[in-house]
Amino acid sequence: MNRREFIFAWWKKKPVYQIYPKSFFDTTGSGTGDLRGVIEKLDHVKSLGAGVIWLTPIYPSPMIDNGYDIADYTAINPLFGTMKDFDELIAEAKRRDIKIVMDLVFNHSSDQHPWFLESKTSRENPKADWYIWRDEKTNWRSIFGGSAWTWCEERGQYYLHTFAKEQPDLNWENPDVRRALFDAANFWLDKGVGGFRIDAIVYIKKPEKFLDGKADAPDGTCAVHNMIANTPGILDFLREFKREVFAGRDIFTVAEANSVKPEELKFWVGNDGVFDMLFEFSHVNVMFNNGDEVWHRSHPIKLSEFKKALSSSQAVTRHSWYPIYFENHDKPRSVNNFFPHGSDKILAAKAMAIILFGLRGTPFIYQGEEIGMTNAAFKTIDEYDDISSRGAYDLARADGLSDKEAMRFVQKFSRDNARTPMQWNSSANAGFTSGKPWLPVHDDFKTCNVEAEEKNPDSVLNFYRKLSALRNSSDVLLRGEYEEIFPTNEEIFPTNEEIFVFTRMLGMKKIIIAVNFTTHDVNLPEKIFDGAKKILGNYPDEKNFLRATEAVIYGN
Ligand code: NOJ
Question: Which of 2, 269, 372, 502 is deepest in the core (most CB within 10 A)?
């Protein structure tokens, strides 16, 4: 592969479409989506110009964390289908020039994985140190709330879990553990998958000081994240991972890596790094302080902070590449998340799409984003399935919030917001299932659904298709340099908290994108468009100012 081909590798050219199979399309009436459902809807994915599908975990699992608790790394969960279905999915996707990317969850397994079942039996069995066992526990809080340590009666020790107690952390210090994980990854590559999204990878190395069993966090509520994320020495594991699995294969890897610092990025991504791209969280976590993602301690998003996070990650794309995303299965719907209450939802969905396709990097579309799906807002905590919502609720109550106050944050941030079933048409259950859906369908499905939007030339769906076609055929959007206009200087640009304006430049060619995040008109500083012509926008006509939630793309 020569350098030019490497720089504009296939995974940079087309968007990735993320599928949460449980909520995508059910072909059996079980109430749960399945692999045959993904096969049936491949043409929908294709219509968005996507070149890759990222499937969240489809392995056997007790589903405590909806598949992020894996009980067998090299098989298919019968809930989703069979290995034959999976092979057919790869083949059918290939026929449409789409690659399938798997989710690797290697920081932890399920507590029902045979490795853990063996490990917990004694301190002497062959898998005794495949997990992290200690006689004493620290005060660390797990990411889903509650202690990060759980006592195991059988073995008479505590085990560590960064996430739920049913997700014990694997001990990467043990070479046999690493070998077993690398073998599992290679199993899927040999089947022809196009690469991996790699879960929670920053937690695989635990700090040395932890090993003496006395490493309390400075404050008793401090999350395990702050104690173990990105521990020095982690790169040795990751380089071995690359050597043993990715090296020499024409695949792409995107690692979930909250908290990697900008100065460390060169070791993580790019030619000399380990992965092709990193999912970092700075722009989607601007409402949280100090990396501690406690929902009820969030503050309202300041547009200037959001833009600053985006612009600094755009800088990374000068030497490496970046995934552009605003939604996934862990985040609220962006229409609710980034726009003020009262914004028009269709305009907002289109405005976000303009940014998604306008920034430099590979756009990741999360299922339902392309039709403008919105947050679920169930009334009581019992209606939420998401394990982290229940943990966040308990933490808020323990901090003195009333049920009503705690629920306000759950409704705003619950991961179930993104997990309600995909809305295909206006028939019962939005056409997602003929049975009882595992999570209720959003009540706006009569108007917000694929079939209705197919027929409407002005729909969010058709806007996505246009934008994707535009990006896939535009050198400036694919390769052009990013620059923010009037970044974060209140004096020069008093509308800093209201609009986001940036350009993409390639030689003499220029694209200018401007988005109004308010519900009122905002004047544009003069000459922003500088004689350029409007290419696309979420209003049909043109003004010399931006209307409520207006987003435009201009080009010369
Ligand atoms: C990140 C995944 O995206 C999330 O859904 C999961 O709960 C955690 N990692 C733990 O695997």
Answer: 372
pLDDT interval class at 5 (50, 70, 90): very low
Domain ranges of the chain: 3-109+175-205+229-375+448-469, 478-555
- Tell me, which fold does domain 3-109+175-205+229-375+448-469 have in CATH? TIM Barrel (3.20.20)
Does this model's pTM top 0.90? My answer is yes
What is the 200 CA–ligand 1 centroid distance (Å)? Answer: 7
Burial class (CB in 10 A: 0-12, 13-18, 19+), 402: exposed
The per-residue pLDDT for range 497-516, each reduced to its tens digit, is: 999 999 999 999 999 999 99
Confidence at 493, pLDDT banded by 50, 70, 90:
low
Q: Is the CB of 169 under 6 A from ligand 1?
A: no
Q: CB of 416 closer than 6 A to ligand 1?
A: no
User: Which backbone phi and psi does 304 adopt, to 5 degrees?
Assistant: -60, -35
Task: From the candidates 69, 85, 103, 199, give the one annotated as an active-site residue.
Answer: 199
CATH H superfamily, domain 478-555: Golgi alpha-mannosidase II (2.60.40.1180)
Active site residue 199: yes
